[in-house]
Amino acid sequence: MVASTKSVTYTQFRYFVALARELSYRRAAQVLGISQPTLTSQINVLEKSLGIALFERSRSGTLLSPEGRSLLPHAEDVLQASIRFEEKARDIAGGNQTTYRLGVPPTLGPYLLPYILPQLHKRYAKLRFYVREAAPTQLVQGLFDGHFDIIISPGSQDSSQLVASKLFVEPLKFVVPSDHALSGLRYIEPEQIHGETVLTLEEAHHFHHQVHELCLKIGAQVTRDYEGTSLDTLRQMVVMGMGVAFLPGLYVHSELHQPDELHVCELKDTPIERQHSLVWRNTAPGRVFFRELGNEIRRILSDTLGHAVKVDS
């Protein structure tokens, strides 16, 4: 393959890194928010520009070529340097950056942000957030790519490039139809849901995997026939008697205005919870402020939602 004289663009660097991480044109295109043919075309142009094959393609899947493995760390360095350049330029231009791009999961944002954003605006008069929702894996990828400045994400982050400040632990509540045999009980034994049909959200959502693991442990059946696309859909499926489910505590606190339709309870001695953290890149110019922001969010949560979640100290 003969290299051309055309320069590699920042966009091509992004596409190469995303595909190298996902090793799937379909998944990488979804993460990037572009069509699969666009990604394929740009990777082909990049390989032609460099004069080397970056990937091995076969019917069994996509793999990095040896040349691609060698170049990947350098491409990641280019992206990180570009992100730092843009962040520093915004800081210099504005004196202090006042608008941050905040990413949150759709199963959390609508039920958390109304409690904390008004209070943060009172505390920091010039602070603004540009909020976007995405699945947890997309939030982390967006943080790496510079599409987000900070995210609120469930689970732990094991990347040395990220800093996670724990905010709170949210319980997952067990809900059954009002006419279910377990309706009326405050706590139920785990073995009491042995054999039950448990509904859950699609795999992209973090607590899908928590629910699946718990059900495997106690002998309940997670159905794959009816996976909800939203918490409201999941709730309605339970109301219609299609099964039982676990719902996030903040959703239950904010949205269950008709308790006669559902019964909410908890598993005895078997808490199922999800940890939420404020996460940012360790190179972010605003990293000192982000730590302060985490402290302020915890204070607000203690005052407003301390009865619904466990706030980290």
UniProtKB/TrEMBL annotation:
This is LysR family transcriptional regulator. Residues 8-65 form the HTH lysR-type domain. Keywords: Activator, DNA-binding, Transcription, Transcription regulation. It comes from the Bacteria. One of its GO terms (cellular component) is protein-DNA complex. The keyword NADP does not apply. Belongs to the LysR transcriptional regulatory family. Pfam families: HTH_1, LysR_substrate. One of its GO terms (molecular function) is DNA binding. The lineage of its organism: Bacteria, Pseudomonadati, Pseudomonadota, Gammaproteobacteria, Alteromonadales. The keyword Oxidoreductase does not apply.
